[in-house]
Structure prediction request, 435 residues.
Amino acid sequence: MLGKMALSQSKPTKMGKSRLLRIFMIVGAVFMILLIIIYWDDVGASNFYLHTTISGPHPSRLPPHSRSDPEKKADEDKETSFLTDIDAFVNQFLEGTADPTEQVRGETINQSSEKSEEKFVPRREWKIHLTPIAPELKQKQDNRKQIIQDLCGNKSLFDFPGRSRTFDDIPNKELDHLIVDDRHGIIYCYVPKVACTNWKRIMIVLSESLLIDGVPYQDPLDVPQELVHNSSLHFTFNKFWKRYGKFSRHLMKIKLKKYTKFLFVRDPFVRLISAYRNKFEQANEDFYKRFAVAMLKRYSNYTNPPASVVDAFAAGIRPSFANFIQYLLDPKTEKDAPFNEHWRQMYRLCHPCQINYDFVGKLETLDEDAEHLLRILRVDNVVEFPQSHRNRTVSSWEQDWFANIPLKARNELYRLYEADFKLFGYSKPDKLFHE
Prediction:
């Protein structure tokens, strides 16, 4: 009798536990579904990363402790003085520090994993900056970004082709200037003739996309010049569709939201002068055949120009700067094909109305901006922007270069590049528009 009573009591208990367990499972499942809905972007990103050989962004240094504005304001003066002294102390010991395990990087590329035990050189150590970034540098960036935001968001201020389209409206082929580094969470939109060679070197070093004797390059200047512009070394948005298919746009948006995005720009007319000098005043066979021959035939009365750039230069034949401007203003040029990247408008390369850039650098303030940016990216302790000869094409030369360009053509050229002038905060060169 007692056994029957005990059995009858244990059944409800077991049934209660089983029911309670089912309830917990249901509640848990609902909770997980809600998490997925709320954080679907992050879940999607994690899923994509599992299918790549690279991990998500991880800063080279820990981010500074966040503080409220009042606390930061109160402590800023004390910290600046103290950290400046620490800077000097730390850098005193970093100068000349050597690491005997660092392998030398040669001139030729060898993808073999074998490492020579005989080639060792001291590693260069970069200075560590502990002082806060100057407020005026932050304000300068805020001003540059605000100009873009105002012009892109207000048609009444200034309207231009492509201003109001969405990111999804941009064809994949127009996203080939956006280089992605997943190791550090960086996206760089390169603009030719705006220090892009050295910034590409930086991206190669950070992404470790190029090896020498199985070891990634660590000094940007060691990257061979002929390989810097090799497209296979740079993972761009244009390549996403091959790897991710229908998910490519979604992944692009995730990276645009989470990564630090930057570009460098330059006075539009000075950039054109630089492009002409580099591609047509020098013996460039490719640009001669693709563009110079057409200019000579259309605007210089050469019905049969020399077949090669060597023969043309030997005969003293080359398109003038005026021919180049005629070529840019000729409606036939863009009908045949989009502008070459070296003279295509900067906003058409980088889409600032569709991409909210975190940093807008300028060639005119390159040294200052490069140091500022590397600190923002938290990579200034592992890479340094290469020191280079200052570009000889400067804005003060504009009047000389445009002296033989008719006033009407100058006005037409300004209208062609007006969006670049206004979006990136460059004043109209008024001296060029008065006879």
